[in-house]
Write a structure and sequence with these properties.
Blueprint: H1 8-34, H2 43-53, E1 85-86, H3 99-103, E2 107-111, E3 115-117, H4 124-128, E4 140-145, E5 148-153, H5 155-163, E6 168-175
Parallel strand pairs: 1-3, 3-5, 4-6
Antiparallel strand pairs: 2-6, 4-5
Helix pairs in contact: 1-2
Length: 181
């Protein structure tokens, strides 16, 4: 039944807005499905994409959540962990790398379940801030020491990757003297 307080013009405008929102959602879902390289580029687009993919109402063309018994397995994770260990502080010796020094280290992929964090807390604002990488490095900083990979900088990036169901993180890995082979 129609709302007696809304005019036909208001009803038409509301319908057009709803249709526009649906079209944009479907287009974004298709784009993110076709272009995996766009994930992690814009926090708002990732949030919308994730909410569409995992919503109860499927959107045509959007990948849905994995279903049990359909060959989906959690690659690299046993017992549902994100990190190998949550550390507190930096156990490795000072490496002396400046921002320029880190920029010279080429990025590579590191599995999240191999990382030991050097922080046990995260500022939620850093995780949710769209400009969190504006002034910093686009890649996380990892220090390899004695066979362990320590996440020195980029905890918010690593958690974003985990929230997006990714098992790897692009990071700059610097080996410190004393690394076990």
């Amino acid at each position: 039944m129609e709302n007696p307080t809304m005019s036909d013009r208001d009803l038409e405008r509301a319908r057009q807005q709803r249709d526009l929102k649906t079209r944009h959602s479907q287009a974004l879902a298709r784009l993110m499905g076709e272009r995996a390289d766009l994930r992690g580029v814009n926090a708002l687009a990732d949030l919308v994409d994730d909410s569409l993919r995992w919503s109860a109402r499927p959107v045509r063309g959007a990948p849905g959540p994995p279903r049990r018994g359909h060959g989906v397995r959690r690659a690299g994770y046993s017992r549902g962990v994100i990190f190998k260990r949550v550390g507190e502080g930096r156990p490795y010796p000072a490496h002396g790398l400046s921002s320029r020094g880190w920029a010279d280290v080429p990025p590579r992929q590191v599995r999240l379940d191999q990382l030991v964090t050097t922080k046990d807390t995260l500022q939620l604002a850093a995780l949710l801030d769209e400009d969190s990488t504006f002034y910093g490095d686009l890649f996380a900083h990892v220090v390899e020491w004695r066979g362990e990979y320590y996440l020195e900088d980029g905890l918010h990036r690593a958690l974003r990757a985990a929230l997006q169901q990714r098992t790897v993180l692009h990071a700059r890995v610097h080996a410190v003297a004393g690394t076990a082979s």
